Amino acid sequence: MAAAGCGGSRADNGYGGQQARRRKGPGALATGYLVIYNVVMTAGWLVIAVGLVRAYLAKGSYHSLYYSIEKPLKFFQTGALLEILHCALVKQPTGIDFCEVFLGLVQTEDSVLLFVVAWTITEIIRYSFYTFSLLNHLPYLIKWARYTLFIVLYPMGVSGELLTIYAALPFVRQSGLYSISLPNKYNFSFDYYTFLILVMISYIPIFPQLYFHMLHQRRKVLSHTEEHRKSE
Length: 232
Hints:
Elements: H1 28-59, H2 70-79, H3 82-86, H4 110-134, H5 140-146, H6 150-175, H7 192-231
Helix pairs in contact: 1-2, 1-4, 4-5, 4-6, 6-7
């Protein structure tokens, strides 16, 4: 059973989608709501991080750590769906990743832990960034982390996602999971196994483009910050 169908809108891990230029912010009520939402999400991902560490210390092994944080992970990943609505309030890139839909399938694979750890660190930084940005008091350390740690976290997360999809393929093919066969009244067929293979192949052109875009954003944002600090 496996986490498959990944590579959704967390493709930029929340780092490359925000422009450095200032935009008109949301109203006071919307800002208050968004601050509370981002604080709660930051706290939630901190709970997940602490849960992972405590489970590892208790077991002395990283195998099957997913079960120790399964419930809060699913809860806060589902909470991320609200970010679709938030786009109407403020231009904030979403962090939703469609891997979460399939987390119940391959939970014993070490690759699941690989991208869950990458997600956890990324989301703590991302929601902290949004919170302080909304309050107009963004610490340089958080900005630096947001535009720097993706260098390691993005390849780490993508590798975990691809390995997990690969591990899921035999089960998907054997069970016919989410596949639709002909004949049926809609005269429509869908092979989920083939779809997953195409998803894996899509990483080849997409990953380098997004990664180099994020590197460009990093140079742009951090160099602008350094120049601003020197001028003060």
